[in-house]
Write a structure and sequence with these properties.
With 699 residues, the protein is α+β, with helices and mostly antiparallel strands. Helices cover 23% and strands 27% of the residues. Strand 6 and strand 7 form a beta hairpin. The longest helix is centred in the first third of the chain and has 16 residues.
């Protein structure tokens, strides 16, 4: 039975979208916005990632964020409306100057009827007027307490001592005090000024919303934490008796070990039986919330937030991207498990553990001061990673990591007691109780007080930028994430990736006659295999099996299963890119001359870059043919089919946009001759060399 056209074409698109980043003619991963960098905007960089990744703010163009451009009132309420999930607005529109066709109509209507925004008069909103700092804080304050009813109002700070306090509008004084109390404005400008009438810039609003999400809202149960727990049922690592991590992640991690003792410690810990990944789970959760990682976008498919990421133990869940762990583990794991274990093990790097805000080991007599510091750190909200150690009966210590978020709630009725909301990967959202007295300090967790061997905590997470897994701009694709620390350039000099459907028996032969045989996802043969990974791209899409081998001038794929007429094969190397997928295929030959496919009644999509300018490749779709020769080499420039049935659709594709920049329908028995620049084409009979009978321009 033939596969549907959707599945045939989607397989080609999947291969091209995922693989072109390794092909040297494709552009490398770059910043989405050319006017944003960490060096230029260190205080705002991750916050801009946060608002863009979550769809709260867009660029002013496809290449410019315009961080210093001011926001209008309409822009800000639209941002807040998106942050709330764009709910269906209720009530009528009270303002005459807001058109029903305006992009901000629903947002203003929602904000006005929910008591979040007011107009400059009863009937005028002034949508294009610049929004000021005090207006932003007022809108956020009203959003929190007129619309959201489950937030604790934290206004412990005073602002009357600020030099420009008198210029704060009367309506904005409580919101401004609330904003300072929650740390929303303390990172901007001179700390003795509030600048209430200053126009808000796009970079500032991005930062304020990111801080608002961390400091005021905190971690939400059904979106900002993992749905699975830190237990043996959730991780493949438990069954492998080690902290399972893929080879590229391990290579990246160990590259940061500058001393032998660090490398030895990492190797020792990774080789021990898995005993939980609480540090890795809390850290990846924290970095995702602060805009430093994009877990659900980079490491899994089709998950709108962290909570929707399935358990790593469900390896073949269609939302997972699957790779192999280190060779000695001999198991397949998901990228999310590898990432969690990567950050779990990172705590043993000197560059990470040396950044803790307290000594790693805190004597019992000093723990009161450390817990007091933690309470002070949390007064303005935010998220803090807390590490604690419990003594075991055998004299050893068991460590555990949790996240604290939001301000502490003081309970004077039970002594000097504070409650702080927490995310514990062993049980989800909870809270901890800290009791401080003159003679002792205790932390209540799991319903009982724990005797502690040590306490440490992180509040400044900039140290983790150095070991970032998805790039500063959170825009790495799957193969960038899996690339080694030496970089794709070094790997690509001597290595080539082969991609195929692992369920189809086949034999692959290189130019030296070495072979690979694939049967039921297992490999054997004389060809050296350097790495392998399995990629699940969607519920209805075919799997891809990636195999890293030595570079060769050609590869031939021969399907061995006569009952299954579908085949899929792609070669992606430093000088060689091509492939095909579809029905009726017997052999696929990828060489420096292009892509050749033979079969019976073939329905397929093929692609090659051989001979193309660096920003293009050629793709052909055929139905009912027995042979296809696809090449754009300057000495050949021919695309031909040999049978008399069906037609061939030829497209010239841009590597930059992934979109066709020219296409032509080629009748059977004809050859399409492309010019050296691929800007025009001539149709000629296959049997007549160099005689053109029809021409078409490719813009």
């Amino acid at each position: 039975m033939k596969r549907s056209f959707f599945k045939r074409t989607s397989a080609a698109l999947i291969a091209l979208v995922l693989l072109l980043t390794l092909f040297p003619s494709a552009s490398a991963a770059t910043s989405q916005f050319t006017d944003i960098s960490r060096a230029a905007y260190p205080d705002y960089f991750d916050a801009i990632n946060f608002v863009v990744d979550n769809g709260y703010m867009n660029g002013m163009s496809t290449t410019k964020f315009e961080p210093n451009t001011s926001l209008t009132r309409a822009m800000f309420i639209t941002l807040l409306y998106r942050y709330d999930g764009s709910p269906t607005p209720i009530g009528s529109m009270p303002f005459e100057d807001v058109s029903t066709s305006a992009y901000y109509y629903d947002a203003v209507r929602w904000g006005a009827n929910e008591g979040i925004v007011t107009g400059i008069t009863d009937t005028l909103f002034n949508p294009n007027g610049a929004v000021t700092r005090e207006q932003v804080m007022t809108f956020l304050y009203r959003y929190s307490f007129s619309y959201q009813y489950d937030l604790v109002e934290n206004t412990y700070a005073t602002i009357t001592g600020k030099a420009d306090y008198s210029s704060v509008s009367q309506y904005a004084r409580t919101p401004m005090r609330w904003a300072v109390s929650n740390g929303l404005t303390t990172t901007v400008g001179n700390q003795s000024y509030l600048y209430p009438k200053n126009v808000a810039q796009r970079k500032e609003v991005a930062l304020w919303l990111c801080l608002y999400d961390q400091n005021v809202v905190g971690l939400k149960s059904y979106s900002d934490i993992f749905s699975f727990l830190n237990d043996t049922y959730s991780f493949k690592s438990y069954a492998s008796n080690t902290y399972a991590i893929c080879t590229p992640h391990w290579s990246r991690l160990t590259s940061y070990a500058t001393y032998d003792n660090e490398w030895n410690h990492l190797t020792e810990v990774r080789g021990k039986k898995w005993n939980g990944s609480c540090f890795g789970m809390t850290l990846t959760c924290l970095l995702d919330q602060t805009g430093q990682l994009a877990l659900n976008e980079i490491f899994v498919d089709g998950c709108s937030d962290m909570y929707s990421i399935p358990s790593p133990a469900a390896t073949y869940n269609h939302l997972h991207t699957v790779t192999s762990s280190l060779a000695d583990d001999n198991i397949e794991i998901t990228l999310i498990e590898s990432a969690i274990n990567y950050y779990m093990l990172s705590q043993y790097l000197d560059c990470v553990k040396g950044s803790a805000c307290s000594d790693t080991w805190v004597p019992w007599g000093d723990q009161r001061y450390v817990l007091s510091d933690i309470i002070d750190e949390q007064r303005d909200g935010g998220i803090l990673q807390l590490g604690i150690g419990f003594p075991r009966s055998d004299g050893s210590t068991a460590g555990h990591a949790i996240l604290l978020f939001g301000p502490p709630v003081y309970d004077s009725s039970n002594g000097d007691v504070y409650y702080i909301d927490a995310y514990d990967p062993n049980e989800g959202i909870t809270n901890i109780r800290i009791e401080l007295t003159e003679n002792r300090a205790q932390l209540l967790q799991y319903g009982e007080y724990s005797e502690l061997d040590f306490i440490y905590y992180w509040k400044d997470n900039s140290v983790f930028n150095e070991i970032d897994l998805d790039g500063e701009y959170n825009n790495m694709n799957i193969f960038d994430v899996l690339s080694t620390t030496e970089g794709s350039e070094q790997v690509s000099e001597n290595r080539t990736w082969l991609y195929m459907d692992p369920n189809i028996p086949a034999t692959i032969t290189n130019a030296s006659g070495e072979t690979l045989e694939i049967r039921n996802g297992e490999l054997k043969g004389s060809m050296q295999v350097w790495d392998r990974k399995r990629i699940l791209t969607g519920l209805n899409a075919p799997q891809l099996f990636g195999i890293l081998v030595d570079t060769s001038t050609n590869f031939t794929y021969e399907r061995q299963d006569c009952l299954n007429h579908y085949a899929e094969f792609t070669v992606c190397g430093p000088t060689l890119f091509g492939g095909a997928c579809g029905d009726g295929i017997n052999t696929i030959h990828i060489s420096m001359e292009g892509t050749q496919i033979e079969g019976t009644d073939m329905h397929l999509t093929a692609y090659t870059s051989q001979g193309c300018p660096t920003d293009r490749y050629v793709r052909a779709t055929i139905d009912g043919e027995s042979f296809l020769n696809l090449s754009a080499l300057l000495f050949a420039n021919d695309v031909s089919v040999s049978s008399v049935e069906g037609t061939c659709l030829v497209e010239v594709i841009s590597n930059i946009t992934g979109m066709p920049i020219g296409e032509y329908e080629l009748p059977a028995g004809q050859t399409l001759r492309l010019s050296n620049t691929l800007t025009d084409a001539v149709l000629i009979p296959t049997t007549q060399a160099g005689i053109g009978s029809c021409a078409v321009t490719l813009p």
